[in-house]
Specification:
Layout (H helix, E strand, L loop, with lengths): L3 E2 L2 E2 H12 L1 E5 L7 H7 L3 H7 L3 E8 L2 E10 L4 E9 L8 H15 L4 E7 L3 H9 L3 E6 L2 H5 L5 E2 L2 E2 L3 E7 L1
Parallel strand pairs: 6-7
Antiparallel strand pairs: 1-2, 3-4, 4-5, 5-6, 7-11, 8-11, 9-10
Bound molecules: acetyl coenzyme *A.
Length: about 170
């Protein structure tokens, strides 16, 4: 029989316990940047090196281990873009990505940005689901972005990653 906890299942209870233990820390581009995680979200080190020095980088720590990262890049005084978000593979699907997105929205709101953007591939079905669940709406498509800017062909969910879907949330 499934053990239940007030208002949720064991899996849900464990997710909540993990989230309670996470702390978010802003880091400097010169410190211990988790490149392995950044590369999980964006396979081009060349692309990462272009935006990272101009981004605010936040990491999530769980028991002194870096388990997630998010990079925020100001496009202008009103708009900020989430250039990179990644969660350690073994801890994915525990609500940490959603938690990081909510933190990013909170940080952007506190800094008085009016809009927050995120771009992902046409093939990133789970990510498109997550971002829309967090209130982002599809506002644009950058056709052939991944074909024109990445040397390797990328496939995800059996679909070729070709176009960047841009999602925006007013804050
Ligand atoms: N496939 C299917 N559904 C997904 C996926 C996925 N890969 N990721 C998230 N979801 C959906 C699920 O419905 C999930 O809810 P459920 O588990 O109750 O069904 C919901 O979104 C919430 O997901 P979280 O658990 O909060 O997401 P997670 O902690 O796994 O973080 C993230 C999401 C950051 C996309 C993570 O999977 C990851 O690091 N992936 C590899 C790197 C990556 O693709 N980063 C984004 C690239 S775009 C960019 O960086 C701007």
């Amino acid at each position: 029989m499934t053990k239940t906890f007030p208002g949720c299942t064991l899996a849900c209870y464990m997710k909540e316990e993990i989230l309670k233990e996470i702390s978010i820390k802003k880091i400097n581009v010169d410190s211990c940047v988790p490149y392995d995680l950044l590369l999980d979200a964006d396979p081009s080190m060349q692309a990462i090196e272009k935006y990272l020095p101009f981004s605010e980088i936040y990491i999530a720590e769980l028991r002194e281990r870096t388990i997630a990262v998010i990079a925020l890049f100001a496009l202008d005084n009103d708009a900020v873009e989430i250039k990179n978000i990644a969660v350690e593979p073994s801890l994915q699907r525990n609500g940490i990505g959603r938690f990081m997105l909510e933190k990013a929205i909170q940080i952007a709101t506190d800094k008085q940005f009016k809009t927050i953007l995120i771009g992902t591939s046409n093939s990133s079905i789970g990510q498109l689901y997550l971002y829309q669940k967090c209130g982002f709406e599809i506002t644009g498509i950058r056709h052939n972005f991944f074909i024109n800017n990445y040397t390797e062909r990328i496939f995800e969910n059996g679909i070729q990653c070709k176009h960047m879907i841009v999602l925006t949330k007013s804050i």
